[in-house]
Structures are given as structure tokens and as C-alpha cells.
Amino acid sequence: MKRFGIGSMIAVAGMIGGASAVASAGVRIDLAVYENSSGGDTSKLDLWVDVIDGGSVVDFVFRNDSTGAAVISNVYFEMNSLIANGSLAGSTGNVAFSIGGAPPNPAQPAFLYGGSWGGNLMRVAASAPAPQKGIGPGESLTVRFDLVGTFADVVSALQPNASDGFRIAQHVISVNNDFSVWTINTPTPGSAAVLGLGGLVAMRRRR
After folding, report:
1. Is residue 1 in some structural domain?
2. Is residue 2 assigned to a domain?
3. In the chain, how many domains are there?
4. Which of 5, 8, 21, 119 can pair with 79 through a Cys bridge, CB separation 3.0 to 4.6 Å?
């Protein structure tokens, strides 16, 4: 598990969260673009996960509120001791996912995003063809885990300033029907400076 410094990004995430078309039923965690090798425009992306307390389980509802073309094709949960026994628990629209899939790991996060990926607790991928079966605008996918720790522990671990947190990564394809990006839940304060004036834009992405 890694240490993620910064609480300043929480305010940024809140600003982005306010623009969402769907109200959170639990705790909203925004997923920020951390890899955009094409340098494409990600200003229309709005990607987040709704973390919902189910008592003995916790649901992660992945939402795509983007106002332009973008499809979430892969989701990765980093190794951690707070949740276990992941399963696919539901979806909307044409979304269809299965456990596993390629690539086996997300693009390696840089230091500003917590450093090297700590291994997968679970990964899921869209069925073929991914552009049609992934999570498109207005659609969602629910992944459910048994709670090992408490719900509060899970929410705390997903925050940018978590001392013993874990990350969630996504591969987003067909962004603007052109390129792909990778997103993650824990950008650090330094990344806000790197993203600069386009930072708010950079927090949503994928193909």
C-alpha cells in the first residue's frame, strides 16, 4: 500500500463532482486522467465511482457522465486488505463486463499519482466489442466486494491524503472517437500544478 500526500485535491474533486449529472448515492470518488500520451482534449470527460455502503458489502458503481464520446473498457482495483471476493453485480444500458481481461495491469502511475502499481486485487474488462460493451456516457457498472474493514476505512483509503490507501484505475477508450487515456483516484497536490489551468479538464478521460 502507498502513501498519498495532499488534501488540496479534495477541493478540486469537489468542484468537478458538482458538475455531475447523477447524484451520488454514497461517496463520490472522482477518477483523474494520469496518462494521456496522445495529448488529446479530455475536457468533456466526467468519470467517477460511487462508493456505496451495503452493510457487509461495498458497491463500487462506475459512472460515465462525459458530455462527449468516451468508453470505460477496463477497471483495476489495487491490492488492499479492506475488501475481498469481488464480483460483478449489475450494469445499465449495453454494458457487459467479465472478470479478467487485457492488459493485465494499468499503465504505471508516475510518482505524482502514488508511484508503481501495487498489484491487482481484481480487474474487469468490457466484453467484445469493447467500444459497444464498455461503459459509455450515461451508463454504469457495479462491482461488489465483501467488507473486511469498515466502510469508513474504505472511503478513507480512497482519499488523496490516505496514509495507507489503495487506488482504482480505468482504461478509457474512444475519447472523442480518437484516442485513449488512463484514470486514477488519487492525484497528489503536485499533480494539480502539473495539470495547471487544464487540471479540471484533465480529471476525466478515456477511449
Report:
1. no
2. no
3. 1
4. 119
Q: What are phi and psi of 57, to 5 degrees?
A: -130, 165
pLDDT in tens, 38-86: 999 999 999 999 999 999 999 999 999 999 999 999 999 999 999 999 9
Within the chain, strands assigned E span 27-30, 32-35, 47-53, 57-64, 71-78, 83-91, 97-99, 120-126, 140-147, 168-175, 179-184
> How does pLDDT run across 109-138, given as a tens digit for each residue?
988 888 899 999 999 999 999 999 999 999
- State the amino acid at position 207 in one-letter form: R
Could you tell me the pTM of the whole model? 0.81
18 in a structural domain: yes
Q: How many angstroms separate the CA atoms of 185 and 200, rounded?
A: 14
Is 109 among the domain residues?
Answer: yes
Q: 14 burial class (0-12, 13-18, 19+ CB within 10 angstroms)?
A: exposed
> Is residue 149 a contact partner of residue 103, using CB atoms and an 8 Å limit?
no
